[in-house]
Write a structure and sequence with these properties.
32% helix; single chain; two-stranded antiparallel ribbon; binds iron/sulfur cluster
Amino acid sequence: MDRIVDRILVSACLIGWPVRFDGAAKTLHHPLLARWAEEGRLVPLCPETMAGLATPRAPAEIEPGTDAAAVLAGTARVLDADGGDHTAAFREGARIATATARIRACRFALLTEGSPSCGSTLIADGTFSGRRILGEGVAARALRDAGLRVFAPDALDELAALLDREA
Ligand code: SF4
């Protein structure tokens, strides 16, 4: 009988897809990631491009003094440096991420740090100054709300230990 492996929703830019706002990838070269790809565990997804945002695109940040939960609740916005409002696309990206996780039975997510969609422990501070603060991106928050365990790239070993324990 086929063995069903735990699947991991992964930020597409982490596995080399050039989908970031600047048209680049943020490829993570790590043997664990290569192993999980070989095992068929990885479900790549870019919430922003899946929601219809172009590449390249203006960088956007969650407005200062708010957070991803407020964006999902409709009481905060995601803006670019000129004040362009991209909230609807970020909420749609989060919706697509959670729907994909559900359809593909992902219990885990491995997401690029710092992004207003995918950041799982750090995001930009909303002032376009390059400063990062503790916080989550909109898709990361939605995935946690949907029950996924969400990890940043620096927590690969923690995710591996969890997968081994549950194998
Ligand atoms: Fe990468 Fe996530 Fe940004 Fe897409 S939304 S480019 S997957 S960090």
